[in-house]
Structure formats: C-alpha cells, structure tokens
C-alpha cells in the first residue's frame, strides 16, 4: 500500500515506531529534499499552492524592478492587508444606523489596537486605489496590453471597477456626515440617466437612473437599507469577486507567457505585429 | 439510427436545453425582482406640518425632517424643496435665497438657479389642507413655481 505513495516513499512505515510515523508525516507535507538541486528547487515551487503563483523560471526582464515597479504585486499586497484587517474590523462593527458611528468611535478610542487596525484598513484602501491606477498606467506605457494580453487588460478593468466599488461601499460604513453625503451624491450620480430619459420624455416608462438608485440604496434615501446593502457589498460580494478576478488575472499572466518583455514575438490573436 | 430517432433526440435535447435556459432566466429575473425594495422603511413622502397659524406672516421656515422650506406670504402658503437638484445635498438659506454647500449652486428666493452646476430650480411642492385644518406637504408631487395655497 505504502509502495504506491506518490512521493515514492516506502520504507519509513516499515521502520515502524513513532520516529517512522513522524518521518512519514513530514515527508507527506514537505514533498521534496533540500533545494540544492535544480530539480528540488523546482519542486519547492511547484508543490506549494502559494509559491506556484510564480513560475519556476521567469525571464530576467520580469524581475527588473524598474520595469513593473512592483505595482501589480503592491496592489495584491494591499488587497491581502485589506482582507485581513477588514475581517478583524468586522468583529466589532455593526451595520445599523443606531450603532455604526459609535462602533467606529469605539474602535478609534476604546478598543485596544482598534485605531491601528482601522487606520491600516483605511490607508491601505487609499493606497490600493492609487497603486492600481499606477499599475494600469505602467501596463499602458510599457505597451503590455498588446500581443494577446488584451484579455488580461479587460480583466484588469474589471479589477479596477471592483477596487473603486470597494472603496465607495466602504466609505458609507462609518455613518458620519462625510459618509452620508458622499453616498447621497454617489447614488444621485448613479441616477443620472434620469437627465437623459427626462430629455427624451421616457422616464415614466423606463426610469433606468431611478431604478439603479433604488437598487443601490434599497429606498429613495440613504438609510438603514442602504447601510446593510453597502455592508454586504463591501464585506462579501465585492471582495469575493475581486479574489476571483485576481485569480484569473494571475492565471492569464502565466498563460500569456509571463510578463511582456522586449524582443518578444508578436502573437496577437490577429497575428499583427505590434 | 433512423431519421425518426434522430429528430426525436434532437427535439428532446432542445426541449431539455430550453427548460434549463428558462429556469436560469426565471431565477435571474426573480433574484433581480427580489433586490428591488418592495417595502420602504423610510419616512412617508407626505408630511403634516401643522396649522397655518403656526407660521408667522412673511416667514420662511426650514423643516429639517422633511427637508423643505415653508413660506407664508400674502399670496398664501407654499413649500420649496431644500434638496439641491444637482446631486441631492441640502441647501442652506442665504440673504438672497439659497446656496448649496456641496458644489456651490446658488438659487434665488423662488428657487430659481442663479449659478450652476444645478440643472434645474428647486422644486415647488404640493401643499394641501386636511379637513381638520392641518397643512400637508406631498414631496412626491411637484407644482408649477408660483402655486400657493390660499389660507
Ligand atoms: C486589483 C487590482 C490588480 C492587481 C492585484 C493586479 C496585479 C497584477 C500583477 C501582480 C501583475 C504582474 C506584473 C506587475 O507586477 O506589474 C499584473 C500584470 C498585469 N496587469 Fe494587473 N493588477 C490589477 C489591476 C489591473 C488593471 C486595472 C489593469 C489594466 C486595466 C491591469 C492589467 C494588467 C496587465 C495587462 C498585466 C500584464 C502586464 C505585462 O505582461 O507586462 N491590472 N497585474
Ligand atoms: S449637490 Fe448642490 S451643487 Fe452639487
């Protein structure tokens, strides 16, 4: 039975005793020897879910700090920080008009470490928006959206929209004056197709703007329903969508043959040279 | 396989796929409908604001709950919405009318825009009287500027 184990280990269990068992378990977790041979070095990467995000071999250009400026990775790091600190904030935050504001104040002034966590979350949120936009600029200025990477550019646009959506939905949660009026204004911007349907005189039959606003707020005004909707969007829907989107984004980079680099042959879907 | 078998199989496949598609579309539709608010947990658009005698002659009163300015003038009683037509902030009273704190729109005392970005003047709202003599403002109904309730 042991002989068929995929790691090819057979004799440990036969050695018997606690030592043999421990060694067996160890070998089932760490499935390779010391990374002192090219093969083992590759195995370290391939057999680990997290490390295998990077391929075993990358082009020198992809590692040049001056090329990517690390902006994509920074976006991802911000996303991870936001996910972790966000879950910690959820322990105390309550999305109700009666409590939300006081809970944020307690996080700031009463709960030990609350202010640090809140500020990590807030600054990382600002940081992520800035860095995602800069990353997009880097991709644009290096022409990295060409040569079959058009699809990943579109995935990137989706990620940009999700990032902005997370930023906007999180903004309401402190339930202070700034939050309230920012979201009132945002919801009315979402309702702006009304200007167009009004001009065409069809608002009565096809009130797209008004419907979008009511869908977003769960009513006509920013109230308890808007708060819970934004909370669900901010804490569940958008982070999950972003996580999936980031997965697709990274997977596409691998399928597109790693990052763009100088002298790369054009292999766009239409076969045109860049 | 005869032609008959083939057409029967094709037919059943299409019916099956059609059912799957119909169920999928119906679920999407139902979920969309579910997300639209069927109950509004917010103040009614109609509010009773008291008797005419509770407003002084020539006064402009701001009611913060319903976000309206109530005028009592020689022509009668009328109400102007305090919600900016730009993006929905609440305007404040100035010497010449109203101004919006959010993006600087300015309105005169009749709610007419004197400086953008607001695209339209402040709406005049329907004012009526209950049989018991209470004034009622209906924020969901606009009336032409200049309309007022004789009291
Ligand atoms: C949540 C936001 C995002 C994350 C976490 C993210 C992450 C990454 C990472 C780690 C890379 C590897 C290269 C690098 O570090 O620059 C990358 C590459 C890329 N990203 Fe993003 N990205 C995001 C948003 C965007 C946006 C908004 C766009 C453009 C609309 C975009 C388009 C691309 C493209 C086309 C590549 C391939 C670049 C190349 O081959 O040189 N990404 N992304
Ligand atoms: S909301 Fe009043 S000027 Fe923009």
Structural overview:
The complex is a heterodimer of chains A (274) and B (151). Chain A is 64% helix and 0% strand. Chain A has 274 residues and is mainly alpha-helical. Chain B folds into two domains: 1-41; 46-143, Rieske Iron-sulfur Protein (3-layer Sandwich). In chain B, the strands form two sheets. In chain B, strands 1-10-9-4-3-2 form a six-stranded antiparallel beta sheet, with no helix packed on it. In chain B, strands 5-6-7-8 form a four-stranded antiparallel beta sheet, with no helix packed on it. Chain B is α+β, with helices and mostly antiparallel strands and 151 residues long. Helices cover 22% and strands 31% of the residues of chain B. Chain B has one helix and ten strands; from the N terminus they run αββββββββββ. Chain B has one helix spanning 3-35; strands at 46-50, 60-63, 68-73, 76-81, 92-93, 97-99, 106-108, 113-115, 124-129, 135-143. The chains are: A mainly alpha (274), B alpha+beta (151). Bound molecules: protoporphyrin IX containing FE and FE2/S2 (inorganic) cluster. Residues 68, 70-73, 75-76, 79, 132, 135-136, 139, 144-145, 149, 152-153, 156-157, 159-160, 163, 246, 249, 253, 259-260 of chain A line the site of protoporphyrin IX containing FE.
